[in-house]
Amino acid sequence: MVTRGLTHIHLMVRDLDRALAFYTRVFGLEERFREGRHMVFLGTPGRDDLITLNEDPRGGEVAGVNGGVDHFGFRLADANFDVAIDEVEAAGGRLIKRGEHAPGVPFAYVKDPDGYTIELLP
Length: 122
Known about the structure:
Layout: E1 8-13, H1 16-27, E2 30-34, E3 39-43, E4 50-55, E5 72-75, H2 81-90, E6 94-102, E7 105-111, E8 117-121
Parallel strand pairs: 1-4, 5-8
Antiparallel strand pairs: 2-3, 3-4, 6-7, 7-8
């Protein structure tokens, strides 16, 4: 099988408006389209990636539950981790861990408001 890359990640969230505000503010994602009142598709400007935010119909029972997926990541256009972490925290997320995978290869792990872990890379 030959693919053209990953198409999207689908996240169950407790509060669609809160999640939408977080991902648009922190990562600059733009709304592409909606499916009904409880699902919105976001993408990185100029790219083909998507994050689908789906308000959990079970009242948040599965929102933030990773099901074996540990984290997903964003590559920063500007590798200023201090600014990125400040933005995450200002939007309701939090820093989990920051360091280097190897010398000169920095990373930061943050959590979004629903508890999903996101890795930031340069």
